[in-house]
Automatic annotation (TrEMBL):
It holds the Pfam family DUF1697. This is DUF1697 domain-containing protein. It comes from Volucribacter amazonae. InterPro entries: DUF1697.
């Protein structure tokens, strides 16, 4: 099932920065998501998962907190 993840307040630099979207794609794929794609540096993510929306939210939050 296709999912859209919208990260709030993501910036290319500064406090809420994610260094590279390619790294975000990599760690989300490592977490088990499929067909992960990002849209520029906006923090918008497209992915595939059979998990519920709440499960996806929790996993994405945990992965970002632990890895970035």
């Amino acid at each position: 099932m296709n999912k859209i993840v919208l990260l709030r307040g993501v910036m290319p630099t500064g406090k809420n920065s994610i260094p590279k979207m390619s790294y975000l794609v990599e760690i989300l794929q490592d977490a088990g998501f499929r067909a992960v794609k990002t849209y520029i540096q906006s923090g918008n993510i497209l992915l595939q998962s059979n998990q519920s929306d709440d499960e996806v939210k929790q996993i994405v939050h945990h992965v970002i907190e632990e890895k970035i």
